[in-house]
Amino acid sequence: MQLRERLFLAALLLVAACIFALPHLVQYWGENVKVEGDDEFCGLMDKTGKNITTIRNHDDIFGELHEGIIRLYNANACSYFNDKGGLIVGNLQAGNDFEEGRAAAQDRQQKWGFLGPDGKWLIEPQFQEVGRFGEGLVAVKNKGERWQYIDANQKVVIPPRFASAGRFVDGLSPASEDTKKWGYIDKQGQWRIEQQYSEESDFCGGTAVVTLETHGETGATNTLKVIDTTGRVLLSYAVPLDLRDLTRKAMQGTLADWHDDDPLSCYNLVDGLAVRLQNDRFGLTDVTGKWVVPADYKALRRVGKDLYVAKKDENHVGVINGAGRTVVPFDYQAIGDFDGASGLAKAIDREGGPLYINSNGRVAIKNKIYWEKVGNFSEGYAAVQSFEKPMVLP
Fold first, then answer.
1. With respect to CATH, is domain 32-392 assigned 2.60.40?
2. What is the pTM of this model?
């Protein structure tokens, strides 16, 4: 066979292979999707599964959308983009998500300040450590100093005096002057709940979770308490000494984001119900301590209004309501929080593939072959990282 004939036959075989493969490519990539480039890209996806924004990613980690702004970061850099993919500010050392119109960020000199939505400094970088803004105040400190609270205009509202300090919610912030016991202060720096607790959490909806460790002749014991803003105890029961670590490990099947939420917050009273731990199993009790849902689950966490992710074992995670009725079948490895804007939650199927479901258990967005990593829905959108760039055709 002549060389020209061989080349012609090879070309025919290649065309035939492409024609055969085309239906299968459409099946995986979708009829309106084409692929360009070899880099990784991060984009925002709406609740229909359509990519609306694309950002070149370069292996960065992406956060969730907060106040219309998404954060991309790695060990050495942090940048902020708007929901259209436009760069707001980059070349930062580190940063947190936006809340109350500002984000804590660290410049290349490793000083912390606060950015506005336009990427300009509202509070110039000058602090060694900063907390989270809450109700117009934030805790800040420099090396060798104690924590103090300032307002958005950098005015000192509560002078430096705390060894540890938290965030204001419901008019109160956890704080400690000696690092051993926690209490709660008001915005004038006065103690409203005296320092007495071993561990604390922010208030939420008028209640907070604290623990009290005591030592006696028989050893150490730990008691969890749910308190109101006056310090009145609403619920109280014995828990393990390592409750925080135990909770982190147990809740792995619930896709909990502990950057924003402390593990102790899992046990707070919400709508009259509280997750409770008993003999390494989780259930639900009412405000009187009466069991509403027996402690039969390896993990249980509130992920939406009257919705709780429940874990039976590693391959059987579902969602129940406050009465214990199954609303999402136990067909998953993990399920995250339901977003209020889109109504969707990220889930991991038994093969390890990510997808998105609604609160009725219906799959709203199936797993895509080009997904590398996907995030939780927030404010109606989810961040998605692709190993190649999906571009939606007009």
1. no
2. 0.84
